[in-house]
Amino acid sequence: MPGAIPLIDTPAAMRQAVGAARAAGRRIGFVPTMGALHAGHVSLVERAARECDDVAVSIFVNPTQFGPGEDFARYPRTLAADLALLAPHGVRWVYAPEAAAVYPPADATRIVVEGPARGFEGAIRPGHFSGVATVVCRLLLAVPADVAYFGAKDWQQTLVVRRMVRDLGLPISIVVCPTVREADGLAMSSRNAYLSAAERARATALNAALERAAAAWEAGADVAAIEAAMREPLLAAGVAIDYATVVDAESLASPTAGRSAVALVAGRLGTTRLIDNRALPPRSDGDG
Asked: Which residue among 153, 177, 201 closes a domain?
């Protein structure tokens, strides 16, 4: 049976532990999470374990990335189950700070990322990406690893994190790993637990929309036609669509010839908001 994973709850103790390991020549991988862990998170941990000597996982439900009326209070907090899930996967440390350790009393500093934070999630959830960038920066300072691993499901978030790391010159590599899906194609997400049985069945429409986007993109359809095709399964399933679009994978602007694109989808089923995406290969005519 695997032993208990050391649980660290202060930035100073976490920095000391990681610093000592790195001083001993060990390569450190870091997986930041908000807990309520599932197989998607485990895939990140396993990738980190393959590529690094030691792995740290953070579990912190970050209050600054939730807007008014969002699900901060009800976001699942399952620390005991999370620790049990991580135990067989070689995690050396779990960093689980209280909010006051991450945001000291009267703290007055936030990070604002422009560029990839504009539009889509940034427009629908004002302040969200400032909260994301701020907490990721503070986590990376507390866990000064060699490399951090993020899932591709939150595609715009990965762009924001990579831009923040680059612009601030933080000494860490960012690795983006493929989305892990359920057998029926639904992207794994901690928020899937909110779905009723009927909503869960309808949620597969997000993946169906992305499948349509990929097929139409490969067939050479223009973006307007692709977006119309994406909306059909979403509307049929009763998804309240926030967006269903195809954009350049790096700039999130209109697709450009010879560059990778990404299909993005977001919408609501009942009170649950879901997002997903699908990478699209470069094609010669860009947006058609």
From this structure: 177
